[in-house]
Specification:
The complex is a heterodimer of chains A (476) and B (202). Chain A has 476 residues and is α/β, with parallel strands linked by helices. Chain A is built from 15 helices and 19 strands. In chain A, the strands form 5 sheets. In chain A, strands 5-4-3-6-7 form a 5-stranded parallel beta sheet. In chain B, 42% of the residues are buried. Classes of the chains: A alpha/beta (476), B alpha/beta (202).
Chain lengths: 476, 202
């Protein structure tokens, strides 16, 4: 019987089978950031251990970084955490992209930019959104601080092989519908624990049609469906992305050709068996908007806020709690919800294509009165690219705040936070209570939907939004 | 890691599904570079009112749960962020074990590395514990890892068997150092590295 993409990568990385169905798995790339690493480095110091492969370990700071004046971290505890990473990288010989570096950015944005993320490799990071890198046909997953220490010391992890889950998107997306809507639709169907214990493999015509950046958005949110990882088989689009631009760690010339011939062996064999599978018609997907307090609480933009007993798979009490927290009344059309803040950023949607998509909407338009818009590029390279295309001028002309790179209001560890009761259209990945600031109310959407909500002051169906927008009006 | 063999303590219930790690330990407390100091901020946004006072509506603030060491909750506990600080906060608050119908993968891994026992019981069994805790104030239970059994401390014996990964169980019972164990395979790792190209990964 054939093998899946996941099985092929898994088998290449088993250092040794261990009792109890576990394996010692080799890790090719270890990405490190300032929040989940200090206690791991301290653990190494206490046990007098070293970093086994410092050259396979790459660090940056992203969570605590202020996006207005990055060199002026006012919070002394945040500053201490950033300084601890500098000190640790120096002491243990780990490569660091610090705030002065033109290559700094959100860890999951810079990995692919630098050519660190390659098909067939294993990538881990003390961060659940490590699943992003799976877009390259990479086995990539988030780990906790104890496992960060384990990888630093041994370059391996003890793992039990996950089950496999194939998600096929047939057909093509309608104009205005994005890969963000695909992944939100899936999480709405399977729930936030639907992928627990599984590695997802996304396939089908609609996935093949996506750019690498759009694929990263899909894989990024695999964890929101509870999955260990999410993967997409590499193809010509993947190879072109790796060959393009300045990616210092990507193979070049002969090494690249040799790599491509190997990468071509990675896709799942036609007769490979999956533990579970699901098919979704991409052409039927509408723009998605989350209404509740986890990413599984999501609906088509054309829908109304549900009543507490009309949510499949959720119990009444949890839905009531979500509605109360979000300040929502059942029966309200989603397009009637007014927004106070719009956040365009995060490892989910802050790459150059996301910014271009938002900029298209803002071009020649103004942000609605009373709405605050924060546009935060995912990396300093994305920022430079956007500025070379004049996108920053376009955002500013519309009334948006153009910032420097970092995680920013996705988790609000830096000063970018919602106030209690504020409603936010956000391109990020989590609408948990208080995620963007205590009492803040988050609705997850695509960059296009977020930008259009900023212009109108409330959610709109991007497919039918008129005012001269170029997408054709669908439906009636 | 502190070994976990068997523990007897007061049960506390948290009647919510999909409790994410952002709730368990909110982001403003992730800035510490130390391991201690998280317990007092467990469930901070739920436990505390905006004026900083204790929220009387929040279940764990109920006087009858004072001193509780076993947390009983609903499905998909620990979803979301990989922050191990969530496990540290739960332990430092005083919990030794968490019982739920299911846990998120990363949270369960992190728990195992720190000696926090995650016990998966059937939905109906968890429901029964919820009922009993509601009925008997200060109800205690014994969680015996060796026998893989949770027993409620009642006149009529109510106990539940739970499944446990054999390796995780061994690590917990003996409080093993996972890194130390892997380093015993250092030669095998070196041999693997000699033939493995981490760029081409073949």
């Amino acid at each position: 019987m054939g093998k899946t993409l996941f099985e092929k990568i898994w088998e290449k990385h088993v250092v040794r089978e261990l009792p109890g169905g576990n394996a010692l798995l080799y890790i090719d790339r270890h990405l490190v950031h300032e929040v989940t690493s200090p206690q791991a480095f301290e653990g190494l110091r206490l046990t007098k251990r070293k970093v086994r492969r410092p050259k396979l370990t790459f660090a940056t700071m992203d969570h605590n970084v202020p996006t207005d004046d990055r060199f002026n971290i006012k919070d002394p505890i945040s500053r201490a955490q950033v300084e601890a990473l500098e000190k640790n990288c120096k002491e243990f010989g780990v490569i660091l992209y610090d705030l002065k570096s033109e290559l700094q950015g959100i860890v999951h944005i810079i990995g692919p930019e630098l050519g660190l993320t390659l098909p067939g490799t294993t990538v881990v990071c003390g961060d659940s959104h490590t699943s992003t890198h799976g877009a390259f046909g990479t086995l990539a997953f988030g780990i906790g601080t104890s496992e960060v220490e384990h990888v630093l010391a041994t370059q391996c992890l003890t793992q039990k092989k996950s089950k496999s889950f194939k998600v096929e998107f047939t057909g093509r997306l309608a104009p205005g519908v994005t890969s963000k809507d695909m992944i939100l639709k899936l999480i709405g169907m399977i729930g936030t624990a639907g992928g627990t214990g599984h590695v997802l493999e996304y396939c089908g015509e609609a996935i093949r049609a996506l750019s690498m950046e759009a694929r990263m958005t899909v894989c990024n949110m695999s964890i929101e469906g509870g999955a260990r990882a999410g993967m997409i088989a590499p193809d010509d689009i993947t190879y072109q992305y790796i060959a393009a631009g300045n990616r210092p760690f990507a193979p070049k010339r002969d090494a690249f050709d040799k790599a491509v011939s190997y990468w071509k062996t990675l896709p799942s064999d036609p007769d490979a068996a999956f533990d579970r599978s699901l098919t979704i018609r991409a052409d039927e997907i509408a723009p998605q908007v989350t209404w509740g307090t986890n990413p599984g609480m999501v609906l088509d933009v054309t829908a109304k806020i549900p009543s507490p007993d009309a949510v499949p798979g959720a119990n009444r009490k949890d839905v009531e709690q979500a509605l109360t927290y979000m300040g929502l009344t059942p029966g309200t059309p989603i397009t009637n919800l007014k927004v106070d803040t719009v956040f365009i950023g995060s490892c989910t949607n802050a790459r150059i294509e996301d910014l271009r998509a938002a900029a298209k909407i803002f071009k020649g338009r103004k942000v609605a009165a009373g709405v605050k818009v924060l546009v935060v590029p995912g990396s300093q390279q994305v920022k430079a690219q956007a500025e070379s295309e004049g996108l920053h001028d376009l955002f500013r002309a519309a009334g948006c705040d153009w910032r420097q790179s970092g995680c920013s209001m996705c988790l609000a560890m830096n000063p970018d936070q919602l106030n209690p009761g504020e409603r936010c259209a956000s391109t990020s990945n989590r609408n948990f209570e208080g995620r963007q600031g205590k009492g803040g109310r988050t609705h997850l959407v695509s960059p296009e939907m977020a930008a259009a909500a900023a212009v109108e002051g409330h959610f709109v169906d991007i497919r039918t939004w008129s005012t001269g927008y170029k997408y054709p009006v669908l439906g009636v | 890691m502190t070994p976990f063999k068997s523990h007897r303590g007061i049960l506390a219930t948290l009647d919510r599904a999909n409790v994410d790690t952002d709730q368990i330990i909110p982001k403003q407390f992730l800035k510490s570079i130390q391991r201690p100091g998280f317990g007092e901020n467990l469930f901070f946004d739920w436990r505390t009112l905006p004026d900083g006072k204790s929220n009387p509506q929040f279940e764990l603030n109920a006087p009858r749960f004072k001193g509780a060491t076993i947390l009983v909750t609903r499905s998909n506990f620990g979803s979301g962020s990989s922050r191990e600080h969530a496990v540290w906060a739960i332990q430092q608050y005083g919990f030794k074990a968490v019982i739920a119908p299911s846990f998120a993968d990363i949270f369960r891994n992190n728990s195992g590395k720190n000696g926090l026992l995650t016990v998966e019981l059937k939905e109906s069994e968890v429901e029964e514990i919820f009922l009993m805790v509601g009925r008997y104030s200060g109800l205690e239970a014994t969680v015996n890892l060796d026998e893989q059994r949770v027993t409620l401390n009642l006149a009529e014996e109510i106990s539940f068997h739970f499944e446990m990964d054999a390796t995780v169980k061994e690590h917990l019972i003996h409080g093993l150092d996972a890194i130390g164990l892997t380093l015993k395979h250092a030669e095998v790792i070196s041999a693997f590295e000699a033939k493995h190209d981490p760029q081409l990964s073949q």
